[in-house]
Amino acid sequence: MTSALSRRTILAGGCVLVGGCVVGVAGCSGGDRPPDRPASDAPIPVSEVPVGGGAVFADRDVVLTQPTAGAFQAFSAICTHQGCRVNEVVDGTINCPCHGSKYSVEDGSVVMGPAPLPLPRREVTVDGDSLRLG
Ligand code: FES
Q1: Nearest C-alpha to atom 3 of ligand 1 is from which residue?
Q2: What is the pLDDT along the chain (134 residues), one digit of tens a residue?
Q3: Strands (E) located in the chain
Q4: Atom of ligand 1 lying closest to residue 86 CA
Q5: Going by CATH, does the domain composed of 4-27+42-133 fall within 2.60.40.1180?
Q6: For the CA of 83, the nearest atom of ligand 1
């Protein structure tokens, strides 16, 4: 049985974690999607979302952030410019690799274009030590 974590791609701090292997993201494109997407309602451990930052869950097309301890936000991981998937959360911004757009971890607003609109919000609820997407 494959655990949800091993099927999950986590992008944070400039690294990609795939099944326990770490690879660089410089050559990543935003259009790939694993064929075995996990159930969207599988919980995500709170510990996977750093305080003051966040993480991209590419297999769910979602970015989870925790601007301050215990305050979680969820956004679409699809850039509002031309549809690439954002690939990292660094220094308070959610970053798109295609043309350099940056979004705030606090509210998904555009910090730097060319993105024309904020990242759309997704629902997230805290359930003990886990996060559930709506
Ligand atoms: S698609 Fe994200 S900046 Fe262009």
Answers
A1: 99
A2: 333 333 333 333 333 333 333 333 333 344 444 444 445 678 999 999 999 999 999 999 999 999 999 999 999 999 999 999 999 999 999 999 999 999 999 999 999 999 999 999 999 999 999 999 98
A3: 9-12, 15-18, 21-24, 44-45, 53-57, 62-68, 71-76, 88-90, 93-95, 102-104, 110-112, 121-122, 124-127, 130-133
A4: 2
A5: no
A6: 1
